[in-house]
Structures
1.
Amino acid sequence: MGRITLEGVTKSFDDTKVIHGADLEIEDGKFVVFVGPSGCGKTTLLRLIAGLEDVSGGRILIDGKDVTRLAPAKRGLSMVFQSYALYPHMSVRRNIAFGLKMARMPKDEIERRVAHAAGILNLTDYLDRRPGQLSGGQRQRVAIGRAIVREPKGFLFDEPLSNLDAALRVQMRLEVTRLQKQLKTTAVYVTHDQVEAMTMADQIVVLQAGRIEQVGTPLELYQRPANVFVAGFIGSPRMNLFEGPVAKRNGATTLGVRPEHLRVQPGEAVAPAGCEAWGGTVIQAEHLGSDTFVYVDVPGIGTLDARCTGELRVQVGDTVTLLPDMYQLHRFDAQQLAMA
Amino acid sequence: MATQQTQKLARILIAPSIILLLLWMIVPLAMTAWFSALNYNLLNSVTSFAGLGNYRYFLSNPAFLSSLLNTLVLVGAVLAISAFFGVLIALLLDQVIVGRRVVRLMLIAPFFVMPTVSALIWKNLLMNPVSGLLAWLWRLFGLAPVDWFTQVPMLSIILIVAWQWLPFAVLILLTALQSLDQEQQEAALMDGAGPFDRFFHLTLPHLARPLSIVILIETIFLLTVFAEIYVTTGGGPGVETTNLAYLIYSQALLQYDVGAASAGGLIAVVLANIAAIFLMRIVGKNLET
């Protein structure tokens, strides 16, 4: 079991408030990702759950039990750090076993668990090496091994893949997700990379400036962003957001449309009844082969990014018309909140 | 890159300084070796060849063995004190306390005091059995003041030298502590390690390398401690605080026997090298990555 509940958790460093009352329910066995720009408080929130920082207000419950004042080790959570934080002078075996040894577990049980974890993580051949002799991916796996042998109620990941190269990151992303599904242990994962968030999460928590902006499944966030910030943050390339007369015409203060919901038609075109048509000039076209991203300067709106098939041949300076999918427009009010 | 030409040029350019350094070392050493083979007394203008006589004389001097022992005791005790208390004080200074910078500066200050001056301060202001601060402190508790340099001469010397060298150890260890990875400590915290477990399993291994450096460097300097002894006890009472360096000094400048002193100097060089080899064997492996 590993249900983590946050009730009005706040955190201040001296006079600066960094977490403004977070309420969150993390269900058992779920993979939850905290995502947001740097400085949004996602790592702080994770450290509060871990117990590495004291909360300034509110409560943290694990399985209904108040752990707000409990020492980190007593909360039954284990953590994977960004720098891996392996003990440099201990072998991989001793690194993984350290937590169990501290818990005064019998030797043969430690041995069994370490062997099991090493088997899962493909570390069996490296057990007698030091961390310094391992590659980045292997170190990452040792850090994960150290987390899983304790059979915790939940894993906490603090940007664990940010020190790996791109190819390895994709591979480890898969491995971590698969491992979590296999162990069915609750996981809280912090990242600034929204691709990681979208691909790994059962549930995404979007944070900005110490506030939880929205909680939901990846697709919910993508399809129904609750406000302008989430709309702009989730999705790559990012959603086109603009204000002005066109937005007003559609009954919103801010109008948003994703690049893939803009159809590009060469030349000038007239809008069909009840639809929008925005004419403009191509200022940049990125041909990726499979897709083409076209940046169009539309008078009265600004620059819009449209995604179309790779077959479309447009060049800088061409006049095109953008036809938005009227059912996929995102309307936001003056408070930047999504309108029903 | 390093072509043959640039290598040759580099050698030529480096050569003068290397040669100078070599002469700087070799000439005094060669002169010492030459003097050690002579009957050479400053009170006697006639010198004559002595062969190994000076060595036989110096080694068979009963003061030699006790000075060797004194040297070892002094070096060992000061090393032990500066390693043990160095770690302890460095740990304390690493904590976030008010006025930490001032405290650090003050703690490191003794290292900048000249050995002669610090020995004089200890002798006249602190350890003087009549007017010293320690004597006053003893009397405050109704105890009879200790006559430090008579009753416990070696301990007194050890205290003075340790007082000078402790800041060095603290300085090096503190720097090392500050490079200790905070996430490692937190990981250990999550693993349920208490303060003692964290110290013995993480901090101490992290300090192994700086400790080796402290021990190596201090040994080099402690083998030749002289000013502190000269100023305070003058090697006495008897030869209780005479170390090898002081014995050589007394041989040369109190008994004017340059020949025997030179022989003693060369013996000291050999012994220091033996000590260095052992040290490198024991602590040197910590210095390899």
2.
Amino acid sequence: MIAIKTKQLRKEFGTKTAVDDLTLQVEPGEVFGFLGPNGAGKTTSIKMLLNLVTPTSGSGLLLNQPLGDNNIRAKIGYLPEHFRFHTWLKAWEFLDFHGKMFRMEKSQRQDVIPKLLDLVGLKESTHAKLGTFSKGMTQRIGLAQALMNDPKLVFLDEPTSGLDPLGRKLVRDIIDGLRNEGTAVFLNSHLLSEIEQTCDRVAFIRSGVVLETNSMATLNQERLRVLLRVAAPSTELATDLASLGDFITADADTPFDHDTGQIIFHVDCEENIGTVARHLVEHGHNIYELKPQRITLEERFLEVIQGDKG
Amino acid sequence: MQIWNIASLTIHEGIRRNIVRLAIGMGILFLIVFGVGIHYIFLQFEDANFLPPGEMEIPAIALTIVGLYVINFLLILVSVLISVASISSEIDTHVIDTIVTKPVSRWEIVLGKWLGFAIMITVYATFMAGGLITISALRTGYRLDTIVPGIALMALNGILVMTISIAGGTRLSTLANGVVAFMLYGIAFIGTWVENIGSVFENEAAINIGILSSLIVPAEAVWRKASLSFESRILGNPQFAGPITVFSEPSDMMIWYAIFYVAALLAWSLWSFSQRDL
């Protein structure tokens, strides 16, 4: 079974193209990060997947069923970016209503609701009206309603935007729990550190087009940057290192930084740092510093989105 | 089942947000004012032999039908006000997002809301009109020709304008929807009076304008049928000159047209909401 599969999904609003080509696949039990700048088409993409907006063209499957299939939604949870709910309902009533909408039996709802309220840290507010909730509490109860049905696929659109660090940790733990249970999570967040900590794979989207999809493991492998300081640094030395083999490339922007005296290059894995070190020693260079440095997801995001993948 | 879940949520919202409580409270106040007023008016008539005993029914009819006329008007206002924001504001605030993504068809959501409002309107029409008719009967001894068909038609009137409001809510913003719903009722209202006066002077153009306005919104035509079912003597009777006078009785087909109007508009609402992007 495939959690999500889309092919050339496209959405136009009049003359404006919000999503040009959404082609991606998400596997069961996978936490999939969806990254892009403001206006890239992330929310429209999620809305197409959830049938909130109708695609202009293209096709897609959710849990092996075509987009818009009514019954499959019983296995899907959704926390929207603009989480607003019926403020006059009490927390228990709110979850009970959404449980009914998921077609859950009364006994099932009564069993699940206390557990979920406990899970999202709102046990004490069981009988409080949502209108009295803070933004963070509203987001937590919204997360609870998305999990009411023991979903196989969950869409979380900016799930930590209103949460404090404790709340973010809670969401991370919940996502980990979902992954362990085999639930796929489609996560849209501006907080790249959250994505970095929770996602198995990420897609970068710009102007409604998926530019790149990669696993975090691959990105981590790709992203090994090395800072080198030697006694007599030069551009020539940087060029010489870059010619050692396919495993090493000079930094595209600053192979040799005159200000800091640093030579910057990239290797495909940590083992090859030793190869570089041996080469330098064999050629009589005094090494002051040879420091591997992980490129953050934010740097990678900027590279991809700005069209400068390096 | 999902339709009933939405309908009960709609009724629950009316109760929880004090709409029902306030409507009943204000309705009781209205009935008290009516009851006290009619009591003192009849006290004067009875003490001073103001009217011959045979004509005591005339003010009783006038006051009762005027009271029902006001209730009909209030019912229309309340029906628009409670439903005007129901769909449009939930779209604007995205409250609807977590509902439409559940295993429920969009048409079930609209139909559920419509059903919830229709139940509230019917109960309120029965409470208000029934209360007023009871008070009038107890104080004056006057009995209407029939009660149930008239109240049913008043409820139909409320449901009719509520359906306009629901239909508008699937496409328009809350404010724009309110303006359209009230203006449509205004067209029906003025059209009816043009027709009423036109029929007195046998002015065919004025009568046709009235008929056309009733086709656009049959609310006032339904009210005329309701008032005539309550009391047939108000038809063309100059003794009841004023807002309650009916100079031109709409045909029975107009009631069927109103029912068809509600059904067609509701069907369009279900389709409209199912088609739109959220």
3.
Amino acid sequence: MKILTTPRLERCIGCHSCSLACARLVHGRLSWDMAGIRIASSGGLSTGFEARICLACNPAPCAAACPTGAYAQRRGGGVIVRKKLCIRCGDCAHACPVGAVYLDPGGEPFVCLHCGRCVPYCPHDCLEMKEVGGGPADKAAAPEEAA
Amino acid sequence: MIRDHFRVLVMDLAAGKGKVVRVDGRDEVAGGSGLGALLFAKYGRIDKPWDDPEQPVIFTIGPLTGYFPLMSKTVAAFKSPYHDQYAESHAGGRSALALKFADLDALVLTGKAPRPSALVVGSRHLELKEVHYLWGKDIQESGKLLRRMFKGSGHRSILRIGPAGENKSAMAGINVDTYRHFGRLGGGAALGAKNIKAVVIIGDGSFPLMEGKDYPRLFQAVYEKLTATDMMQKYHNLGTPVNVAVLNKLKALPWRNLQATSDENAHGISGERFAETALLRNAACAGCPVGCIHIGFSRERFQTDHRFFYRQVSYDHEPIFAAGSMLGVTDCFAVLDILDVVEQMGLDVMSAGVALAWATEALEKGVITEKETLLPLRFGDHNTYEKAVQHLAYGVNDFYRLLAQGTLKAAAHYGGADFACVLGQEMAGYATGEVFFASQALGFRHSHLDAGGYAYDQKHDDQDVGKAVEFLVTDEASRAFLTSMVACLFARGVYTDELLAECLQVVGYGALAGSIDAVSRRIQQLRWQTRLATGFDPAAVSIPKRFTEVVTWKGKVDGEFLAVLKNEYARRIAEMARREDHP
């Protein structure tokens, strides 16, 4: 099982190609926000950039907080998302300790699915899909499903 | 959002209220440059001066903004304090994508805010906030405060002016996201005259994309083309400063107010030297994987002990020319020190550097004295230039106030017009010969980017006036279309008309895709008509004597050829503006 990681984010130039790729390819949107990875300057442009991204918690607090099972634990960390089950309560976003879940104005949550489709669009090789072993929650993890 | 019209927010700054207006004309003028001229016709006043509260300041983006890589620029259109005529200036940063995600094709500011204010716009937000406490603050300090005051970090663009804009200097730029600028022709003063210290654009909207695989497939192909070309390598590596050594070797780099075109100490300010010793990191405009922005550092020792502070300063070929070779400064850190002050003051670096180069020669020649300059300006003395830049921004005496309105305005009063390096506005960093000089002197923006005159000079040895002018006119039309999309002109080699047609087609602008040539000519014509209606007389443009004294690798500039070129290009411009039919 692989997760998306940002081992070389210090190289980031703020082009937003990753976010735009996620919005375009995963969510079918043109957006800075409706993306699983979102880039922001860390306190002004002179201090470089940070990525708002799911850290693949295992167990994932957002999945634990989700009252309907729309967010369920993903094997290896992070969540499996079943959009049809989502009631837009926003509990996932509030539960995330690192602000990785974006709620659109209608309350729909967007989070990284660890699919890796953003990776080839980074011109500085900041991103990497990394193989991970099972965490404590894997024993109880839900079976994998398409998002 | 794909629309067959333009969605424009018209903000009445006096009333503090905005209105979303639907403007037709998408298939006729596309966006960007074309839309700027269209909106100026609707909201501008050709009969009133640039600082009349009714004059609009317009920001526009294009039909491909955000949809494809390097479609990352915004066009600012306004009546310029420099020549009191219609003008455009272009910038990147996050401004274009922020406007796109604010769901606007254009933002038009009309009226004058009663007090110094910041305008904040987003897809679900509009606020005019009184910020008198920011007035007088430099670019860095106001930027830090604005970042804290308003939401949207990372997905917003912050446009702001410095003291130069507040003082209505015709050389005042608008800073965009710290490292980019609407630099030329006094956009900063146009905002200052409206009491607007800053415009914060929050890109918080999202749009559904076209269904099917055609769009992502074409995006992928364009992305690969853009990132696989030599262009990518050039801008990734040394960036535009690679030109410094190249032009110097060619005898085409202006030195010390264009008294020379090469210098043996050029290596101290070459792109190579900057990259080896001063380059900290790179940055990109939003939506551009190329990331051409090169950021160096300027550090200052403020105690006898080793105590320093430092600032990050972006550099490019043009700033290095303006604060380096043109001022005889041959150390890259000295250049960055000057650039840092220029940035903080909110001045256009090319205008400021060239103006101070003229002042230095004028002082040397006794045309002016230290009574005017207040400082012993001397080529190479960067510490003095740092102070002079502040004098220019604050307009500390009559001399600096006049100089800040344009070098030729100062020369008309004090003398020394023969050696004022002005081609419509203060020259760009290319002394390549007659075609470039005619191109900048008459070009729509008086920019080295209006048409590739500097490249034409390097590729042609003949003196074929007809061929050269035809090149300038045709190249300008093609660039006018690109700046209506709005593409970064660094991508012009990739975005051919054929590729642009594919891009427009796939996102749903089929009519534009099928009429690029006609629309290009129409935009070109509309821009010239607007410019001439506001007072531009191409036949009256004169090129100072200094440009005929220049010696390049081809030998001495041919004054006669330059005059014939200029006259013929002026004739063609007048002809374009006169034509009544839209092609």
4.
Amino acid sequence: MAGKATLVVHSGDMDKLYSALIIANGALSMGMEASLYFTFWGLERLKKGGLEKGPLSRMNLLGLGKWMVKRRMKKAKVVSLEKLLQDFKELGGKIIACEMTMEIMGIKPEDLRQDLIDDYGAVGAYIQEAKESTITLFI
Amino acid sequence: MAEMKIDVRGETCPVPLVEMRKALRKASPGDIVEVIGNHPASKKEIPMAVKALGLELMEVQQEGEIWKIRIRR
């Protein structure tokens, strides 16, 4: 089966990042190509040391909610975001960083995890990827 | 023909699926990949992925909580 999944990772919330990476890794596992386009708050998570810094999208309760959810996730043996990203890359997934977000937020390439990023692009790069995709999501 | 064994007991979504895919990428055509796990949803998902990948699902076994799936690349 061919096909491709292109996901816009707009949110930097921890739980949404999990959703994006699990879907993307699922697509790769089922033989599809997958691209993740990191923009706005999502791109913040690709800063060095920023991956696990996202709050919960709901009931974060100044970090208490996140702490509780992380504890439950550990108990349920859910893997880390880092592991999901490493698997994503190992299975051939592609990561694109939004250049406009970098300009707006004053993020330099050296601030980002360049080991993970394949390409830097703007909306054209997303459209190019998305128009040949069978799945596109905005997370 | 080579045979690979992947043990994902104790692992949860999406790890069994991802590890299966990693093994299949390393396998040569005709090789067999055996996945052993206990995550209930993955027992349904792995055969789904095998179908999507156009590969042969040889066997699905269940013993207590543990399932075993054999795939031919």
